[in-house]
Amino acid sequence: MEYFIGLMSGTSMDGIDAAVCAFDDSLPEPRFQGVQAHAAGHYPAPLRERLLTLQRTVPQLSLRELAELDRDVARAFADAAGAALAAAGLPPGAIRAVGSHGQTVFHDPAGTCGSIQLGNPSLVAQRLGITTVADFRRADVAAGGQGAPLVPAFHHALFARADRPRVALNLGGIANITLLPGADASDVSGFDTGPANGLMDEWAERQLGRAYDEDGRFAASGRLHPELLEALLGDPYFAAPPPKSTGRGDFHLDWLRHRYPGLDGLAPADVQRTLCELTARTVADAIRRHGPRTQEVLACGGGTRNPLLMERLRALLAPMALGTTAGAGLDPQHVEAAAFAWLAMRTMRGLPGNLPAVTGAERPVILGGIYRA
Ligand SMILES: Nc1ncnc2c1ncn2[C@@H]1O[C@H](COP(=O)(O)OP(=O)(O)O)[C@@H](O)[C@H]1O
Ligand SMILES: [Mg+2]
Q: How confident is the model at residue 245 (pLDDT cuts 50, 70, 90)?
């Protein structure tokens, strides 16, 4: 058995997920054996605020500030990994490598500039005393891809079934789907469907002063506003064909106001309810359109903890079955971090990590840079 730690923080900025993962000795491709321990790391409040501001507005920051963020994110990532290590009861020497996604601060899906993640990997490696793999997206971009999404390859390795068309659905700050029509990797596709928690969080924070709408209660107290929903669904992103990827820079409060100038005259709870519906509708529409034969949708990410969102998804997806990845043996909150442990394992073994059909790259490539402890 070999152990890797995966570190991930998505666009929700709710914190860092750290997962200690076990892999068997199968060759050439070791198989994922499960999460041994998980820890949820936190960004100190001022750091979180600075990172959120970077996502929501056109970044205005000095190179010194950029370097500081790179350092501070690395410290928070290393702390999260340390906590997971302690929870697993393992010494650093037991871990082959850390796979650190870092925090995305820039993503240019349509162009060739790729994507920038902060969290100085050398600092992560040296604070932990563990070799760290990072900068996973750049090799795919260099090979002509969008550098995203990368997690579908892991979804395929874990969840694909020859006789059962499935979809893996991640409800993070942004929602993304992986279509798994069968066992063959070349049939996998996946893309970001649009906003999920990120937009709901922004509205909840503004109206309630809380980081998110706990259990979807605020949304459940409001009524769906059909006109607002139609205005939002009119954004060309939703009808655009894949490959496509997006970020919170595309879906934020100013976007809401731009799509529906009368926004501030609506009851705040009705807006929350409608944003929840927007996520459910755009996800369900994407699955129906691109995976009409899907039998089962396996959801993961923080959105699975929002009962209203899950209820609306279930209704819109029927007769497809909706469950969470827990039904397939992986806690919904561990999936993304585990994916970066898996990707680090592949890098250390010299195995490619991207799926060209998903990212648009010209070929499979070995992802990431290796930073020695
Ligand atoms: N009890 C809950 N009720 C509603 N939403 C929740 C709940 N718990 C978590 N969430 C949502 O999940 C988000 C975090 O999801 P996560 O999968 O970690 O996203 P990311 O990958 O973008 O970091 C939170 O910001 C929040 O919106
Ligand atoms: Mg998160």
A: confident
